[in-house]
Structure of PA2779 family protein:
Amino acid sequence: MFKKLLVGYLIISIVVIGIVQSAGAAFIASEVTLNTKTQDLEKLQKFLEMKIVSQRLKDFGYSEKEIMDRLSSLDEQSLHKLALKIDEIKIAGDAGLAVILALLIIALVILIINLTGHRVVVK
C-alpha cells in the first residue's frame, strides 16, 4: 500500500516538475534598446508619411511640425507602444484574404460535389 502511494506521488511530482516552465532574467545591451527606439521612430515616420494618414491629420488641423514635436516629446515606452499599435492597424482592410478564403471554400465544395458523383452545371 505504501509503495503504491509513493509511486503515485512520484509520478505526479515528475509530471508537475516537467510542466513548470523556468524563467530567466538577463541584462539587455544598450545597443538593443537604442535600435528599438530608432526602429520605432522610423516605423512611425513611415506611417505618418502615408497619404491617407497625413491627409487625415491635416483634416484635424495638425501641421507636420506639431506632429514631429509631439513625437519627440514621447518617452521610449510610449513610443514603443505606439509603434506596436501601428503593426496592428490594417489600412484599407484586408479584403484580399477574404477573397482567397471564399475562392478556396468554393473550390472545396465543387471538389466534394464532384467526388460524390454529382455534377455542377452553370447555365
